[in-house]
Design goal:
Layout: E1 2-7, H1 15-24, E2 28-33, E3 46-49, H2 59-72, E4 74-76, H3 79-85, E5 114-118, E6 128-130, H4 133-145, E7 150-154, H5 158-161, E8 164-170, E9 173-180, E10 198-200, H6 205-215, E11 224-231, E12 237-243, H7 257-269
Parallel strand pairs: 1-2, 1-3, 3-4
Antiparallel strand pairs: 5-6, 5-7, 8-9, 8-11, 9-10, 11-12
Bound molecules: adenosine-5'-diphosphate (ADP) and magnesium ion (MG).
Length: 270
């Protein structure tokens, strides 16, 4: 089996360990840039989207690529999933508890602190945190004036002490979960404060139940999924993001994870 490991030109510290695990499952992986015009996608048995982290400001180009690649080979996750999942308006369709979200710059609720972010983003790009309602509104208006769908949320203090939990699944099976530190500094703009630290952690029962419920809403077969959950002030777990496109997988946290991924891939292709 020959499989494209779909990536970008930049940093990706999970590439080598993943490709090594694939080899162990008789899968020959080749790193390929998603936007390389010279690639013949039909020459691969499958293409696995991994570190395509430069798609955020070129989302239309990315979804068009996904449709093309998906027509030429087996794209994982499928193009329909990638198209749906790269716009956080999907959070409205899931029918599960999510972080309270106001989808417009008009009539912002009164909250102690605000997070304003575009529906199409990654890595907290173009995201602000502020205690100033007028500043939140002004930033929301600015993003909307660029034709972008925006999300305004209360800043959940719980991420400061309890963090965000990412539950990672391969082939529909739970692999591992990590606790991630808060990313947004106070009153920052276009910047990320998180130190990127993470630790392996067993999900609590209610977090696990939420993740299973979220994944139960997706009809397509998924090779990989990351369900990011946070807690409301009253303790209720809610979904902050469902990552079915290009999630970082925290493979360093769990020794067996790359092999489990490789096995899930081999099973899907078998
Ligand atoms: N409402 C919120 N309350 C607290 N922290 C938030 C909130 N929204 C986002 N964040 C922080 O910003 C990070 C990025 O936001 P997220 O919604 O996951 O978008 P993306 O990862 O696609 O940029 C989160 O991991 C979290 O640390
Ligand atoms: Mg996120």
């Amino acid at each position: 089996m020959k499989v494209a490991y779909v990536t970008w030109d930049g940093w990706d510290d999970e590439r080598e360990v993943m490709l090594a695990a694939w080899l162990g499952a008789d899968i020959e992986g080749a790193p390929v840039r998603w936007d390389d015009p010279h690639v013949d996608w039909s020459s691969f048995d499958a293409a696995v989207v991994r570190s395509t982290w430069d798609y955020v400001h070129r989302r239309d180009e990315f979804t068009a690529w996904a449709r093309r690649a998906g027509a030429a080979t087996r794209l994982l996750n499928p193009a329909t999933v990638l198209t749906w999942n790269t716009d956080k308006t999907y959070l409205r369709d899931l029918g599960v508890p999510i972080v309270p979200t106001h989808w417009s710059s008009i009539d912002l609720p009164v909250w102690d602190e605000y997070v304003v972010k575009p529906a199409i983003s990654a890595g907290a790009r173009d995201t602000i945190r502020t205690g100033d309602r007028q500043q939140a509104e002004a930033f929301a208006v600015e993003l909307e004036s660029q034709g972008r769908t925006i999300m305004v949320q209360p800043y959940l203090e719980t991420v400061e002490h309890e963090g965000e939990l990412s539950l990672i699944y391969f082939g529909g099976q739970f692999s591992h979960a990590v606790r991630r530190n808060a990313m947004l500094a106070h009153d920052m703009r276009d910047g990320v404060a998180g130190n990127g630290k993470f630790t392996l952690r067993d999900p609590d029962e209610d977090q696990f139940e939420l993740a299973e419920r979220v994944l139960g809403q997706v009809a397509e077969e998924l090779l990989y999924a990351r369900v990011d959950v946070v807690r409301m002030p009253d303790g209720e777990p809610v979904l902050i993001e469902l990552e079915l496109t290009e999630p970082y997988l925290y493979l360093k946290a769990e020794f067996d994870a790359p092999d489990m991924f490789a096995k899930a891939l081999a099973d899907l292709l078998g």
